[in-house]
């Protein structure tokens, strides 16, 4: 395919991954950057080189090339119209878009089946199934969150274990690290289903940041929503070499992101019951916190890639550089009606879903995405002579 250049490396040797791989899949020695989850909504986005992978509204894995301003469906089936489950690029609703690492694609299904393919979606091969023996003995596993960094795959799995009782399984959330080079599975943490939930934050090689959030209190009135905000607790952990360390407890706010390079960023709620924030803080190494900025009228923020976050304050939308602790100087040309929280940074701009239907009811399909390039107000003023 013209839009994705396949670069062949050295000759491949035979490597058995978890006992069933027929092809060697080599790994880089170190990951270059921190990776974050692909998303938790009806769409997911994975940036790669000067473009990004996504699943289009026809449920097909697609690559968008920014320079060429074009998309290609990753299917080489002759005569395929890319509109059915028979398409080679078809991704079932709810399944994760593949991660890109070591210049290839990694598919992780809900039941923990791991497949690897070349980055044009050819030569796909199933390499193993996570906790396969346990699943054969009665465990039901559903992957709800995942991060891939070089050879390490991290997952949050919702687990029902029916080995002790056929009627009512033990419901838990568990975090695992899977070494894709040798298939080794390492258990990191477990909570009962009524004790809250886990979310993965960022990873780089053998280091993982993850978050525990307290159970959400059901709220039907504004005052109950405000009370639920006040009761929300988050705990941020860092895992490495078999040890998990509690780094920060956040009360009444959201975690923005966390990794070794930039530390921990989090917000404090405005208190109006709408999950808006008023202040953003940076957690310092000595346990103190520095207020980075404040918007008394409240702000929302979109998805983040561990370096840049998208902020919405009223009708103004901006980019904030977490490493430099400053606005990037680029404005966002927001000319369609959508929620800022639906935006996701990609090279040169961001993706966001198109406006919702007037009745507010979805059709159960993936949302159609819009790619918007960043606008530089300084260059615009010079070009227009103003």
Explain what you see.
There is one protein chain. By secondary structure, the protein is mainly beta. The protein is built from 3 helices and 26 strands. The longest helix has 10 residues, at 222-231. It is globular, with a radius of gyration of 22 Å.
Provide a quick synopsis of the model.
The chain is mainly beta and 386 residues long. Helix content is 6%, strand content 46%.
Radius of gyration equals 22 Å
Strand order of the largest sheet: 17-18-19-20-21-22-23-26-25-24
Instruction: Provide the succession of SSEs.
Output: EEEEEEEEHEEEEEEHEEEEEEEEEEEEH
Ends distance = 43 Å
Principal-axes shape call: globular
Q: Would you tell me the overall average pLDDT? A: 77
Which structural class matches the secondary elements? mainly beta
Count of β-strands: 26
Number of H- or I-type helical stretches = 3
> How would a textbook summarize the main sheet?
10 strands, antiparallel
Could you name the ranges where pLDDT drops below 50 across 5 or more consecutive residues? 1-21, 335-341, 356-364, 376-386
Percent of residues in helices: under 10%
What is the percentage of strand-forming residues? over 45%
